[in-house]
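Q: Got a minute? One more chain.
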Amino acid sequence: MARENLIYNSFRLNMNNPQHVKINNVLKNLNPKIFKSRNQFIADAVEFYSEHYGDESFIEHNKEHEIQFVTLEEIEEIKTELIEIDMTEARKEVIRLLGGVISGMQVLNPATNSNVAISVPDQQDDEVVSEWALKCMNNEEGEN
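A: Always. Here it is, folded:
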């Protein structure tokens, strides 16, 4: 039953590799008065390496569970994008409504979702209304 909590990892050395030959000599000639076993020596070596060199560079982290922060620059970028999208939609809506006013047709009032008849006085011509619409749109752009 004591073996239930054990995990096995294989460790292989190539005797054609000088680094592996050196490691094999160290493992074969460990002083038993200092080290209990080869297993403990390897465990101590890995622990020493990770404590002194940091494990961030060679351990794979699960990014899904890490806390991530949003920078002020990212918030400003998102804010700017949302304002641009809203302004574009507002311009489209103003143009649609003004087009309906100019043509004298009934348009859907977005605030109440009901049809509203908009009458255009005869004395106003298309140029005056167009200039007024452009002036309103320019004023909205200046509010940013």
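A: Residues 14-58 form one domain.
Q: Perfect, thanks.
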